[in-house]
């Protein structure tokens, strides 16, 4: 009798999924999971942007304190599943997530959109890091569209080159900013917008992270049209583990686990 009461109790309990966010995919996934009655979603943001797009009320903001902090959080909050939907360049939190999920022995999924691949007409110089991108710029162009965000601007600050630097929030006060102009804007960006920016500022080359997705891809199309080279920073490696490339497949992964 005791067991069957426990079983009924467990059936009525919602399971908990923690989504590590900071991407449009994370927001979309959170919205869809919120419609599944058996599951409670907790969203987590690092707190980098001043006005983040917050998926739902159930959002916590700020770091966990490394692997140990995230492991403790997963235990304390009794998280059943962990979905890492962070940006492909947010390498540290993905490593931490994989390690913490292993430590508490819960299923863990990485939702990571596919990288862009060059197509006919693209002129890409693929590099491993921002430092490597900075190294190829002298001699390539004198006016560069720098679209790597605000955190790693200092890697370009030593160059005698003019930069158009686009980011969501201004650089933090202690950042060494390269010479040029700051443009504060949040995607998605249209092809028309990107084409006219490149022309208006007489841009000779673009530096971009290989973020994938559609929101910031128009600049790559505009560069192709205008014959402008793109210095493409490759993604950092991901930890081993289950990976999917889109929200619907992530949702199926979760539904499979709910039904088990
Ligand atoms: P990161 O280098 O991988 O992470 C640095 C630290 O930030 C982590 O160790 C963790 O702190 C904290 N953190 C990161 N994501 C978190 C999350 N979703 N919830 C709670 N804490 C988080 O990350 P990053 O490159 O600085 O990116 C920070 C956030 O911005 C990520 O959530 C990412 O999705 C988003 N983002 C990044 C980029 C990019 O190009 N890097 C672009 C767009 C959006 P603790 O160790 O203290 O837990």
What this model shows, in words?
With 260 residues, this protein is an alpha/beta fold. The chain folds into two domains: 5-113 and 237-258, NAD(P)-binding Rossmann-like Domain (Rossmann fold, 3-Layer(aba) Sandwich); 124-233, Rossmann fold. The protein is 32% helix and 22% strand. The chain has helices at 2-12, 24-33, 66-76, 91-104, 130-136, 191-200, 218-226, 247-258; strands at 15-20, 39-45, 59-61, 81-84, 108-111, 124-127, 143-147, 162-167, 180-184, 205-209, 230-233, 242-244. The chain has a six-stranded parallel β-sheet with strand order 3-2-1-4-5-12, sandwiched between helices. The protein has a six-stranded parallel β-sheet with strand order 6-11-10-7-8-9. Strand 10 (205-209), helix 7 (218-226) and strand 11 (230-233) form a beta-alpha-beta unit. Helix 2 runs parallel beside helix 8, helix 3 (66-76) crosses helix 4 and helix 6 (191-200) crosses helix 7. The longest helix is centred in the middle third of the chain and has 14 residues, at 91-104. The protein is elongated, with a radius of gyration of 21 Å. The two termini are 23 Å apart. The model is unreliable at 5-9 (pLDDT under 50). Residues 20-23, 44-46, 48, 63-66, 69-70, 86-87, 89-93, 96, 149, 209 line the site of NADP nicotinamide-adenine-dinucleotide phosphate. NADP nicotinamide-adenine-dinucleotide phosphate is lined by residues 20-23, 44-46, 48, 63-66, 69-70, 86-87, 89-93, 96, 149, 209.
């Amino acid at each position: 009798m005791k067991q069957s009461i426990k079983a009924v109790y467990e059936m009525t309990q919602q399971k908990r999924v923690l989504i590590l966010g900071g991407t449009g995919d994370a927001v979309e996934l959170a919205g869809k999971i919120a419609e599944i009655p058996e599951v409670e979603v907790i969203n987590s943001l690092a707190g980098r942007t001043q006005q983040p797009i917050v998926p739902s009320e159930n959002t916590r903001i700020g770091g966990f304190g490394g692997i140990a902090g995230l492991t403790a959080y997963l235990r304390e909050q009794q998280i059943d599943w962990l979905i890492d939907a962070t940006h492909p360049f947010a390498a540290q939190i993905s490593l931490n997530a994989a390690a913490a999920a292993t430590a508490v022995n819960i299923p863990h999924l990485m939702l990571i959109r596919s990288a862009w691949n060059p197509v006919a007409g693209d002129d890409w110089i693929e590099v491993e890091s921002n430092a490597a991108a900075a190294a190829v710029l002298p001699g390539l162009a004198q006016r560069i569209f720098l679209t790597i965000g605000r955190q790693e601007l200092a890697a370009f600050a030593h160059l005698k080159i003019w930069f158009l630097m686009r980011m969501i929030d201004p650089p933090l006060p202690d950042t060494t900013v390269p010479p040029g102009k700051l443009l504060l804007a949040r995607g998605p960006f249209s092809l028309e917008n990107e084409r006219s920016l490149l022309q208006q500022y007489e841009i000779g080359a673009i530096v971009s992270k290989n973020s994938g997705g559609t929101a910031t891809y128009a600049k790559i199309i505009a560069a192709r049209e205008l014959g402008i080279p793109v210095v493409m920073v490759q993604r950092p490696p991901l930890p081993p583990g289950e990976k999917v490339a889109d929200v619907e497949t992530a949702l199926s992964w979760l539904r499979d686990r709910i039904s088990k």
